[in-house]
Design a protein that fits this description.
- By secondary structure, this protein is α/β, with parallel strands linked by helices.
- The strands form three sheets. Strands 3-4-5-6-9-10 form a six-stranded parallel β-sheet. The protein has a two-stranded parallel sheet with strand order 1-2.
- Strand 3, helix 4 and strand 4 form a beta-alpha-beta unit.
- Helix 3 packs parallel to helix 4 and helix 4 runs parallel beside helix 5.
Length: about 300
Amino acid sequence: QVRRDKELSLDVSRRLQHMDEDGTFAQIIFPTLGMVGFSGIQDPALAGACARAYNRFTAEFASADPKRLRSTMLLPFNHPEVAAEEMRYARNELGLDLAFTNPTPPGDHAWSNPDFDPVWRAAEELGVVVMLHESTVGAGPNAVGINRYAGRGAMIYLCTHTVEVQLAVMDLILGGVLERHPGLKVGLLEAHLTWIPGWLQLMDSKFGAGVMARDTALPLLPSDYFRRQIFAAAFPEDLGVREVIDAVGRENVVFSSDWPHPNLVPGEEPGWLDVVRARDDITDDEKADLLETNPRRWLNL
């Protein structure tokens, strides 16, 4: 079934047919092996050329119905000026307004390092949503636990898919990125949700408003920056959805099918929408927001 779905996903007409049958209006298309990204290429011209080739390819694939097939651009974040230039090309010439990166920054710099400001500035100016989406097989050599837990898939999964995203959220907030770029929108994909309330509560209670980022005191609580600029995608059966809605607000959560990955609910069907609809911890109004209203707002749909 998984192999059939992956083959189907490469046929654009069959993909659209599957979406109709599934009741899905739009899909956000992430790379597969491309999740390794181009941030490991040291030559800036080569890294930029690879990004340009991929972005042209994915835009052409989605051109059959660009309103429903929403491709994400790839950028060489280890070369911020090149990444910003490619972002402008992909946005203005190809119509792409979603960007993918691992939550682990390339090299030894934090995301809040001034070197990355050209990318955040371009994303804010162009209305490009930056999507943090980890991949265990594509995690970089500096990802948390990648060497410490080598060969232990479960541990590496938790480190890359949740711990690294927590660090990225901390960095973007306490490092002042979201304060300097209030129009920047950031998505957390395949990162689950159970950690969000406690992580924000800890930052609020420990540091509150007024924590120093560079030479500036942040005027808002960490949770306020999250509410204003960050959203998280939940799997249909994810734990913590209720808690995040209560702690942060339902405006900051969307549901994702993660297709063509196998359904994470044991056994055969039901489909992902059936799983969402069967949840008794979320009201019908909340489900409508998480399935339609929020994705439209956060993802420029």
